[in-house]
Design goal:
This protein is mainly beta and 114 residues long. The chain is 8% helix and 41% strand. The chain is built from 1 helix and 9 strands, in the order ββαβββββββ.
Length: 114
Amino acid sequence: MAIYTVRSETSKEETAHRTWKAAVNAASRMNDPARIIERDENGERAYNILGDPIDDESFTVGDTVRFAEALEPGDDDARFVVTEDNGDRLFVRLVCDLPIPPTSLVRRSEMVKV
């Protein structure tokens, strides 16, 4: 049987829950990003509130990253610089020669370090 823990990304406050639904409800009531940690006999896994797995690869502001999986032509060549880390999401700026480079908000799980 799995136990679900909801952990605040900023205050590190934790609450334990017996069901996924209760954990998601608790996470949605938090005022800051939260991760849901599932623990069972197979180990520990972390998810965001949408149920997407969170890879604990750490990103810092200034890291160069790319998409883990290219969905559109040219995505595999695109490089970005992390400008802000918001828990399960990252603000990234496209590396290009435009005067004002595009900035995007992406899921942490969609990006990998170069």
